[in-house]
Amino acid sequence: MKLTIFAATGGIGRQALDQAVAAGHDVTAVVRNPKKLSAKVRAVASDLAAPDPAVLESAVRGADAVLSGLGPRTASEAGVAWQGTRAIVQAMKANHVRRIVVVSAAPIGTVPSPGRPKPPDHDPGDGFFMRNLFSPLIRVALRKHYADLALMEDVLRDSGLDWTVVRPPRLTDKPVTGTYRTAFGQNLRGGFFISRADVAHLMLRALGQPETVQRTIGIAY
Length: 221
Ligand SMILES: NC(=O)c1ccc[n+]([C@@H]2O[C@H](COP(=O)([O-])OP(=O)(O)OC[C@H]3O[C@@H](n4cnc5c(N)ncnc54)[C@H](OP(=O)(O)O)[C@@H]3O)[C@@H](O)[C@H]2O)c1
Description:
With 221 residues, the protein is α/β, with parallel strands linked by helices. It has six helices and ten strands, in the order βαββαβαβααββββαβ. The structure holds NADP nicotinamide-adenine-dinucleotide phosphate (NAP).
């Protein structure tokens, strides 16, 4: 496939890039700093906090699908996920590219946003520990980050595109296994970890699975 991968120098993005190249896909990588790229592919430089629409359009033109590992590296960068994704969506629409798979986070199903002002109090996949202890604490600690990801999900739901949102729990740097649980629209009971490599594996796998279109997917071991 012809793939455009945004944030291909991030933890998940780099894994997606390396796995896509190994699988023989024709990849364009859109990154802030092409010098950080781990593979020799067509590189497009763009700061997604202030993107040039023409640059993004050239990056997605002719793509079969778009993958994005975009997310704020710090609290002060929060906002980049939804604003950058909005710019990606606009570039895709302008070029009739329909398929996009992005990374969100496990708690986002319970985070209110303008598009989902009254989400459920608890994710149906979360057990006692997640619901009552971990999730409330982390939601306070990462409030800005999660608000950004919830808005990013709004952008995709409103886009009319063939989107898939992957919502991982705590990320690790362990190697790819290809062996993990997934669930549509909810988290995985007792699933506290997933490697960045396996999130990337699912993102690539989802491209061949039409049933993942317009769905959120929980993933964990
Ligand atoms: N950490 C966790 O345990 C966890 C759990 C669940 C979900 N998540 C979500 O998963 C996302 C991906 O995880 P990760 O480990 O791959 O994150 P990461 O390594 O921090 O990657 C974030 C990517 O976004 C890019 N980026 C940020 N601001 C940008 C900008 N203004 N313009 C262009 N690119 C920009 C970064 O580019 P540079 O390489 O140039 O910095 C990097 O490639 C996180 O951002 C978070 O939202 C994280």
